[in-house]
Every structure is written in C-alpha cells, then in structure tokens.
Amino acid sequence: MAKEKLFCFLAFAITILAIFSPAWSVDPCEADIVHLIQYCYEFVQIKGPKIPPSITCCLVVRSTDMPCTCKHVNKEVEKIISMEKVSYVAERCDRPLAHGSKCGSYTVPSA
C-alpha cells in the first residue's frame, strides 16, 4: 500500500511540476520511470518471483530509453521496484541492458 502511495505521489509531483513550470519540462527518462512503474509494476515489484512481463509492459519497455532511464533511478525508486527484475523484464522484452552497465545501484551481470 505504501509503495502505491509513493508511486501516486511521484506521478502527481511530476505532473504538477510540468503544469506549473512551463520553463521546466519533465525529463523523458523520468517520465519513463513513471510509465515503467505504472505498466510493469507487477513484473518489477520487489516482492515475489521473477515472472515474464505482459505485452503491454513490453510495449512500454520497448519505447523506453533504458540506459537513460537507468541513470535516473534513485533510492526512492529502488524502494518501489527491483532493478534486477527491471533487467530481467528488459531482456524478456528484447531490450536487454548492456552487461556491466548500471541501473540505479544494480550492476547488470556479465553473460
């Protein structure tokens, strides 16, 4: 429940900043994090086993600049989603992260 509230807060905060700060625009990579949480939460949440992502989730992942998104992951995001599962989902969606690259604090293992 707390994770869903944090997600709602993040989405709300980004929306408010975008509306009331015309000179400030939402970074597309940060918006991608919100979309990843919104459409792939079931597959990247911290609890539970790794499960193959849905078609909808994969559509989001395929339209996301994953290296850029990974650079914008912070500790607050990592309280909501598992970066290891993000890497797994990206691979299952045919958008694998580069081996040795970082996604938040997670380092993608070598093959």
UniProtKB/TrEMBL annotation:
Start and end residues of each Bifunctional inhibitor/plant lipid transfer protein/seed storage helical domain: 23-103
Signal peptide boundaries: 1-25
Q: Name one Pfam family in it.
A: LTP_2
| Gene3D superfamilies xrefs | Plant lipid-transfer and hydrophobic proteins
Lineage of source species: Eukaryota, Viridiplantae, Streptophyta, Embryophyta, Tracheophyta
Q: What is this protein called?
A: Uncharacterized protein LOC109718645
Cited SUPFAM superfamilies = Bifunctional inhibitor/lipid-transfer protein/seed storage 2S albumin
**UniProt keywords, alphabetically:** Signal
| Taxonomic superkingdom | Eukaryota
Tell me which species this is from: Ananas comosus
Q: Does the keyword Nucleotide-binding apply?
A: no
